[in-house]
């Protein structure tokens, strides 16, 4: 009995309700307590302002005392200097620097002094630079006796002292205004504006949240829909989410997973088919091999026992024996191929230098004449079964030679290999001079007993691909033509693991 399916509550609606509740709850609480909140806030601000006013008033009094003390100090210094005999004598050689270096002059920050005659001309003067950019000059003229001469003193005073005093007064006035808000509520108009602003902001936030929740839930729904299609058997379904955010990354990862699953499923299906063919091949090899020898012996015996003188009949027997022996030899080769497919050894991986395996192909003189190698700059080591890997490459090289010769070329084959910069694999490319492989045949040629050659059983590529798959790799036909003009077969193998070491 099929379980009852309840109508689900949409995620978008859940998010919308949650956003509205989250946004509106503070607004409702604020509206409820706005009176107490404003009164408390006003009282707290007023109390804080009162404390600030008290502190600033004391600071203002300190400023006034500083002004008064400074003026008094300057006046006392000017009066004391105006009674000195050397200054009253109006001696042009009077040592004014000595006066500047005196202790009282340093305390009053006197940095320049001049003696001015009654006619306004300068009798003597000296001075020092201001202590820094934050200081300014304050000049004080003091009469020198009854002659009408003047003692002009220049003091250094802080440049921002007056501005700081005015700023302090402005701060005191602002704080007194804040104090007036004690124990009073905000006007109704201000509360209404405040609630209106909060309400509009809440609605905008809720609207934005609804839009974003719609955007997110639609993308999640796309993922769910794609997963549902795949579960229903539509293995080519993909989600293809756009953007650069986490959801798009999730969609890409989901599509990559589906691609990997589809690729793995294809490989598993292929290996299952080859496994079935292996079982059939073992049975056929056994059933075909047994009667071959008796048939060949019977024909040979029939021919050898004829003692007649009928030349035509004797020739017929000889031709029959030749045909039977030739066909039996072909059947024996087919049986050997069946036996090979049915008795492939188990893959035993070990670290091997790929160049050594490929170089061994040159030991065959016929292959050495046609083989061209393009090794990489750095040596490549893989974890593979040396015998089986050599068998795969040798089969591809032999097929390439035949394909080139059937196309009327020399039949040369180029083998290149390299470790991929991105990934943990190595690719081996075998290029021939043949006519290439049609797009419709690129997958079909790996099926048993399918071949594009005029001779052959069509099992070589099937065996080679099975070996590549059992190594965790792949054998395929490249979509582009080889640089040599023919087909390019590409073997992909995993690189050696971190625990492996290359053979010496």
Provide a quick synopsis of the model:
The chain is α+β, with helices and mostly antiparallel strands.
What does this structure look like?
There is one protein chain. β3 (135-144) and β4 form a beta hairpin. The strands form 3 sheets. This protein has a 5-stranded mixed β-sheet. The protein has a 4-stranded antiparallel β-sheet with strand order 2-1-4-3. A two-stranded antiparallel ribbon has the order 5-7. It folds into 3 domains: 13-179, no CATH class; 257-342, Helix Hairpins (Orthogonal Bundle), CATH 1.10.287; 350-494, Histidine kinase-like ATPase, C-terminal domain (Heat Shock Protein 90). The two termini are 66 Å apart. It is elongated and about 180 Å long. The chain has 12 helices and 11 strands. 57% of the residues lie in helices and 14% in strands. It has helices at residues 11-82, 85-88, 96-101, 103-107, 161-179, 188-231, 246-304, 311-342, 354-359, 365-370, 386-406, 460-470; strands spanning 110-116, 122-127, 135-144, 149-158, 350-353, 371-374, 381-384, 413-419, 425-431, 474-477, 488-494. It is an alpha+beta fold.
């Amino acid at each position: 009995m099929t379980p009852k399916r309840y109508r689900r509550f949409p995620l978008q609606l859940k998010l919308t309700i949650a956003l509205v509740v989250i946004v509106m709850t503070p607004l409702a609480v604020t509206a409820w307590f706005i009176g107490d909140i404003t009164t408390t806030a006003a009282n707290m601000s007023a109390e804080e302002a009162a404390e600030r006013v008290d502190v600033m008033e004391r600071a203002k009094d300190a400023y006034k005392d500083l002004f008064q003390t400074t003026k008094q100090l300057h006046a006392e210094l000017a009066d004391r200097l105006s009674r000195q005999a050397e200054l009253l004598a109006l001696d042009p050689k009077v040592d004014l620097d000595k006066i500047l270096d005196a202790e009282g002059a340093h305390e009053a920050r006197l940095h320049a002094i001049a003696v001015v005659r009654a006619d306004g001309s300068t009798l003597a003067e000296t001075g020092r630079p201001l202590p820094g950019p934050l200081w300014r000059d304050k000049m004080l003229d003091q009469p020198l006796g009854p002659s009408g001469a003047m003692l002009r003193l220049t003091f250094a005073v802080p440049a921002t002292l007056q501005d700081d005093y005015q700023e302090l007064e402005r701060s005191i006035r602002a704080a007194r205004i804040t104090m007036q808000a004690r124990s009073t509520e905000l006007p109704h108009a201000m509360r209404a504006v405040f609630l209106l602003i909060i309400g509009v902001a809440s609605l905008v936030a809720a609207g934005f949240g609804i839009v974003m929740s719609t955007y997110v839930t639609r993308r999640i729904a796309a993922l769910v829909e794609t997963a549902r299609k795949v579960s229903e058997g539509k293995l080519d379904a993909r989600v293809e989410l756009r953007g650069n955010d986490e959801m798009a990354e999730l969609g890409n990862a989901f599509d990559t997973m589906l691609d990997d699953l589809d690729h793995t499923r294809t490989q598993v299906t292929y290996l299952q088919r080859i496994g079935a063919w292996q079982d059939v091949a073992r049975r056929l090899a056994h059933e075909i091999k047994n009667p071959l020898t008796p048939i060949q012996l019977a024909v040979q015996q029939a021919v050898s026992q004829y003692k007649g003188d009928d030349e035509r009949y004797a020739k017929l027997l000889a031709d029959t024996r030749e045909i039977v022996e030739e066909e039996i030899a072909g059947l024996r080769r087919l049986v050997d191929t069946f036996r090979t497919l049915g008795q492939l050894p188990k893959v035993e991986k070990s670290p091997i230098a790929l160049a050594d395996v490929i170089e061994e192909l040159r030991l065959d003189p016929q292959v050495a004449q046609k083989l061209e190698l393009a090794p990489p700059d750095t040596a490549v080591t893989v974890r593979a079964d040396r015998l089986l890997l050599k068998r795969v490459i040798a089969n591809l090289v032999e097929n390439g030679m035949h394909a080139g010769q059937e196309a009327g070329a020399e039949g040369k084959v180029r083998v290149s290999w390299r470790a991929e910069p991105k990934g943990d694999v190595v690719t081996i490319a075998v290029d021939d001079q043949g006519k290439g492989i049609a797009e419709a045949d690129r997958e079909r040629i790996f099926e048993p007993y399918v071949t594009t050659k005029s001779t052959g059983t069509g099992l070589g590529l099937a065996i080679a691909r099975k070996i590549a798959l059992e190594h965790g790799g792949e054998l395929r036909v490249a979509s582009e033509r080889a640089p040599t003009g023919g087909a390019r077969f590409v073997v992909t193998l995993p690189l050696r693991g971190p625990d492996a070491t290359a053979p010496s």
